[in-house]
Design brief:
Number of helices of chain B: 5
Oligomer: heterodimer
Distance between the termini of chain A: 39 Å
Shape of chain A: elongated
Order of helices and strands of chain A: EHHEEEHEHHEEH
CATH class of one domain in chain B: Alpha Beta
Structural class of chain B: alpha+beta
Order of helices and strands of chain B: EEHEEEHHEHEEEH
Strand order of the largest sheet of chain B: 2-1-5-3-4
Radius of gyration of chain B: 19 Å
Number of domains of chain A: 1
Strand content of chain B: 5-15%
Helix content of chain B: 10-25%
CATH topology of chain A: Rossmann fold
Number of strands of chain A: 7
Distance between the termini of chain B: 20 Å
Chain lengths: 180, 241
Amino acid sequence: MAAKLKVATTSLAGCFGCHMSILDIDERILQLVEIIEFDRSPLTDIKHCGPCDIGIIEGGVCNAENVHVLREFRANCKILIALGACAVNGGLPAQRNHLDLRDILEEVYHTSPGLALGSQIPNDPELPLPLNKVHPIHEVVKVDYFLPGCPPSGDAIWKFLTDLIAGRTPHLAHEMMHYD
Amino acid sequence: MSEKKTFTLDGDDVAFEPGQTIIQAALAAGKYIPHLCYHPEFKPHGSCKLCTVKINGRPAASCTTAAQPGLSVESEIPEIQDQRRTMVQMLLVEGNHFCPSCEKSGNCMLQGLAYDLGIMSPHFPQIFPTRPLDASHADVFLDFDRCILCELCVRASTEVDHKGVFALSGRGINKHLIVNAESGKLADTDFALTDKAAQVCPVGVILKKRVGFAVPIGKRRFDATPMSVVIAEESKTKETV
């Protein structure tokens, strides 16, 4: 039997909804693990990505850590897939892009009513610095395939991955094609 | 009555009445040509360029070109479809088209066209323009993030409602939809929910208040069936009824 394909997944500025949708392939995941092996992924809790055949990215890029993780994936994965609205076009987190970052942080952590006395914008050096704007991942690295949807359905993810693994150009029928 | 005159669209014969444009004749015959600024009840506008076809080998807008006997019209050919894909991608990055939060999702012609063209990504860098919402009116709100400058609301308000509520202002990338009031707010115009201009927006700019998600996602106009099929069927029915 041929060696299993290595697949890594991660969520950047996403909500893990797309990962939940990956799990929505239900028992077909048993068929999937016959032919693939997960590397770095929230499913394995492996922290860094080794050389992989397929990298699946959920979420856009909203902070410095996202940029590092995304570049690690690009460096290690032969094929990189943008999974879901946020990875494809910034999605919900990008709705902050018309606001000034400093103003947002001030309002959320400093000036909103109901905050504890002395609340400040968090500045622990361990926290990744937010970017001024949220970006779709293809604005940072080359992306090979895009699968839109918020989230894409389990069926769409299954169709996409099985097409890709079988060496076909992934194609979604109308009922699987959704931006919402 | 003499026999109907015909041209060919992607190899199929399409009959037309004198005075019809290519897109009018095609739709009447139940054949879809992609479009955004064209609306059967309004004069051709020729601005969105999505309906561009090759007529005897030369590109032209099918909404502004009169049907003539013997023309060879090509629409669904790779060269034209690629151009349409690029134009829709440019429209997608030029505004803020966030479908998951949009009440128009599933009924939206821009989205429907993007699905039909198989657009999986916006391709170009997002511009993320700042376009504040106008929720001043009692019955309708305006989400300018989604405007594609088709001018259907402008035309409807001017030609049908005779109110002139909307206009386009600025040039090039700065072109934008404005409301004709000193305050710039819709509440300060005589715009009403019953206006034609409230019915024609192909995207999610002009939206009725208090009906959000009354029809769930999945049950909307283009959710089950591709927009190209829905529009072709509807146009054909109108013609034959």
